[in-house]
Each structure stands twice: as structure tokens, then as C-alpha cells.
């Protein structure tokens, strides 16, 4: 439908100005001043649509108006309204709803054409983390503080753990036309290994591989004492750094907090439910993609070697590029009032 891409508040503004006798150019200028640019053509089509001109339902060239058309204006408005309520309705669902509501039996193809004319197209959803209200406020405060101080995160050590499964196939593949789909075996219970590491603008820490459950004693002894302290001594000898990690229970245990205080590690707590504020999450994503597509491990030794080979590419410049991504994330979190940024 012409005008469906116009925001709701803009539609109301258009109709109000039209009733006042404003022409299309004047309405367009008013919307531009309100930071909602809409072309004169779109305004014209929307007003004609709102006035009930069924010819505006035919946006395709070469198509003629048929007064005996199965779907009327009322049917189009019903489809548009139901799609706005539930954007996961398929053509079969809409056919049943039209039959139940209007006793009208139409084909799926007719409904699909109508839905397309109304501006609805099929696309995959973009998923991101749901943030609780109390954590939303904490995220917003955190990002506002970073934004107001022009923090570039150049002295932050971002750390995290991740689980890596042994996979030897990428998510997509290609085949020639006429060939049968390729068979690629998948293990039901693949071998799994855990990794811990950190990145900063001065480079990456050594990566630690381990299996089993990571308990608080292991975390303090093997990770904080064995990995983090040597990295701080080597890369931040002057002590101008901040240590960042998520809110895993092991990270916040009394044993871990006492160790951080005893060793005078400058711990920088981050808000819960904030993977988008820790750039090492993107490193894990790239590592898993590398293992599936290029390393293709088929044994424990090959998986471990593939992880080490990838980690060897984590230069200071590459780490700084990941951390620089926060310059996009922080303003977006503020713009979304503390909700997930989508990055």
C-alpha cells in the first residue's frame, strides 16, 4: 500500500494538514522540518489511498483496474492490520482469517499479492538479547558515563570464557546445478573444549584451554594468577589499566574478589546482560567461523592446534579494531535507552 512506509505519526500529520487545505508541497516541507522526510509523490499516493481510491492498489505498470476485484479496500485494511499485530502470519493463516471474518474464500496467491502490495516482505528476524529493566538502567548509566568522559577504552583488558565444539563444516555450502545436496556428517555429541583469553589495545593475553567445569579455585589460580597477572606485568607495568569481565558467579565469588583486592587489580565491573559491551565476544564468533570453515578439525589435537593458530593472528592492531567497535555500540545503547544495541 502506498504510504505504509510512512511512520504513523507522520500519517496523522499528513491527514491533519490535508484537511487544513495544505497542498502536497507544503505538507512535504512541514514533514522535512519535523525531520521526517516524505516525498510529494508518497504524500499524494497516501492521501488518495486514505480517500478510498481503489486504483491506488495497483502499483505495477501495465496493470488495469478491475471493479470486480475479489479483495476490497476493507479486506486490504484487515490484512494490513492483522499483519501489524502478528508479523509471523503466513498466507494460509490469512486465508483462514478472511474466510472466518468475511466469509470470503480466496487463494494463497491472491493473499500473497495483496500482502506484497501492502508493503510486507519476507525477511529473517534479527535476534538480540532481552535486557531486564533493572539491567537496562545499569547499562544506560554505564554507557552515559563512558560517553560523557570520551572514554576510548584504550586501557581496558576485556576477558571472557567460551566453549568451542569440534565442527568441520561451515553453515552454508554450494553445489552445481543438477547435483544432489552434499552429505556432510555431523557428530551427535562433538568434543568440547573451553577457552579463556583477554584482549586490549596493547595486544592479547595468552589463551588458556581447559575441559570440565571451571570452579572458582581454578579460576583464581590458573586464570587470574597464571594468566592475567603476567599479562598486566608485561603490557601495563605502569598500572594504568582496567580489568573487565562479565558477571559470572565465579568472577564475583568471595575468593575471586579477595584475590583481586589483595593483588590490587583494578577491577572494572560491567553491567549484567551486556555481551555487546565486551568486544571479545566478536573474537569468539570469528574463531568459531575460522575453525568450521578453514581449520576443519577432526580430532582433539587438530582442534587445539586450530585454536592456537587463530590466536596467533590476534595482533595489537586487530585487538584495537575490535575494541574500537565500542564507539558504535555505546551511542546505540544510549539511543535505545539501555536496551540491546543489536551489535
Automatic annotation (TrEMBL):
Source organism, top-level taxon: Eukaryota
GO MF, any single term: nucleic acid binding
SUPFAM superfamilies according to UniProt: Homeodomain-like
Membrane-spanning intervals of the chain: none
InterPro entries recorded: Homeodomain-like_sf (IPR009057), RNaseH_sf (IPR036397), Tc1-like_DDE_dom (IPR038717), Transposase_5 (IPR052338)
Domain Tc1-like transposase DDE residue range list: 156-303
Protein name: Transposable element Tcb2 transposase
The species this protein was found in: Paramuricea clavata
Amino acid at each position: 500500500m502506498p504510504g505504509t512506509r510512512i511512520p504513523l505519526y507522520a500519517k496523522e500529520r499528513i491527514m491533519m494538514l490535508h484537511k487544513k487545505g495544505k497542498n502536497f508541497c507544503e505538507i512535504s516541507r512541514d514533514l522535512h522540518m519535523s525531520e521526517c522526510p516524505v516525498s510529494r509523490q508518497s504524500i499524494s499516493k497516501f492521501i488518495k489511498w486514505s480517500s478510498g481510491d481503489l486504483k491506488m492498489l495497483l502499483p505495477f505498470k501495465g496493470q488495469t483496474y478491475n471493479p470486480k476485484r475479489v479483495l476490497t479496500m476493507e479486506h486490504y485494511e484487515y490484512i494490513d492490520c492483522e499483519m501489524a499485530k502478528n508479523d509471523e502470519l503466513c498466507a494460509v493463516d490469512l486465508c483462514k482469517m478472511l474466510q472466518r471474518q468475511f466469509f470470503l474464500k480466496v487463494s494463497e496467491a491472491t493473499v500473497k499479492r495483496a500482502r506484497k502490495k501492502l508493503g510486507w516482505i519476507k525477511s529473517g528476524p534479527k535476534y538480540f538479547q532481552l535486557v531486564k529493566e533493572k539491567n537496562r538502567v545499569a547499562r544506560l548509566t554505564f554507557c552515559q558515563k563512558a560517553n560523557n568522559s570520551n572514554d576510548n577504552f584504550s586501557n581496558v583488558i576485556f576477558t571472557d570464557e567460551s566453549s568451542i565444539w569440534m565442527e568441520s563444516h561451515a553453515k552454508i555450502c554450494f553445489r552445481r546445478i543438477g547435483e544432489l545436496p552434499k552429505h556432510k556428517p555431523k557428530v551427535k555429541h562433538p568434543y568440547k573444549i573451553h577457552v579463556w583469553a583477554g584482549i586490549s589495545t596493547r595486544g592479547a593475553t595468552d589463551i588458556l584451554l581447559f575441559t570440565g567445569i571451571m570452579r572458582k579455585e581454578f579460576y583464581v589460580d590458573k586464570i587470574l594468577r597464571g594468566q592475567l597477572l603476567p599479562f598486566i606485568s608485561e603490557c601495563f607495568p605502569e598500572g594504568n589499566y582496567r580489568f573487565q569481565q562479565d558477571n559470572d558467579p565465579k568472577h564475583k565469588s568471595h575468593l575471586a574478589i579477595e584475590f583481586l583486592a589483595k593483588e590490587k587489580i583494578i577491577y572494572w565491573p560491567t553491567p549484567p546482560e551486556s555481551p555487546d559491551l565486551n568486544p571479545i565476544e566478536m573474537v569468539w564468533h570469528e574463531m568459531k567461523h575460522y575453525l568450521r570453515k578453514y581449520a576443519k578439525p577432526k580430532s582433539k589435537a587438530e582442534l587445539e592446534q586450530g585454536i592456537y593458530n587463530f590466536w596467533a593472528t590476534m595482533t595489537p592492531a586487530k585487538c584495537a579494531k575490535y575494541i574500537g567497535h565500542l564507539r558504535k555500540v555505546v551511542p546505540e545503547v544510549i539511543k535505545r535507552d539501555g536496551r540491546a544495541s543489536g551489535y
